[in-house]
Write a structure and sequence with these properties.
There is one protein chain. This protein has 3 helices and 8 strands, in the order E-H-E-E-E-H-E-E-E-E-H. The protein is α+β, with helices and mostly antiparallel strands. The protein has a 6-stranded mixed beta barrel with strand order 2-3-4-5-6-8. Helix 2 links the parallel strand 4 and strand 5. The termini are far apart.
Length: about 170
């Protein structure tokens, strides 16, 4: 696989993943957790409503893809087209938003399950590879404030403790 840097990881959306996989539906889909391939075991969709730390209401759609790190019985990775078909089957029962953020749940069987974000799928050596990276927590008011500052073209240089976060 080509080298992936931190900038390649983000909260990719369902639509971005499916659009990427459409290029080669017969290619195996391989999710890489700490460089090791893992298997898809479950796909869940949810709609969330919350209050952030600034008492702002939040609402979003999110899909959780649970991955299993156990390699047994020489199990092969499913083709990208089969994964897409599973997503379509989920959409028969639950309305899916193509803009839904994807969250990957992974455990090595010893440590507690953790949340990951992913790189966009890359076709390499005849298979799709999606590398995972630990997802950091965030503060939605601070994230919005940073986006507003970037859109305004200014560089604040302020530390999180002096931003509008949690005010």
């Amino acid at each position: 696989m080509n080298a992936i840097n931190k900038a390649d990881f983000a909260d990719i959306t369902l639509g971005q993943l499916l659009d990427g996989l459409a290029a080669a539906p017969e290619a195996p889909l391989v999710f890489l957790y700490e460089g090791q391939p893992v298997h898809v075991t479950e796909v869940k969709a949810g709609a969330f409503s919350a209050l952030d730390c600034g008492a702002n209401p939040e609402a979003w759609s999110e899909m959780f893809i649970q991955l299993w790190d156990i390699d047994e019985d020489g199990r092969n990775h499913m083709p990208a087209g089969k994964f897409s078909a599973i997503i379509r089957k989920v959409s028969d029962h639950v309305r899916l938003d193509p803009a839904a953020k994807l969250t990957f749940e992974v455990s090595d069987g010893n440590r507690a399950m953790a949340l990951y974000c992913a790189s966009l799928p890359r076709l390499a050596d005849g298979r799709f590879e999606v590398a995972l990276a630990a997802r950091p927590s965030s503060c939605k008011p601070r994230d919005r404030w940073l986006v507003e500052k970037a859109a305004a073209g200014s560089c604040c240089g302020q530390a999180a403790s002096t931003s509008k976060c949690c005010s």
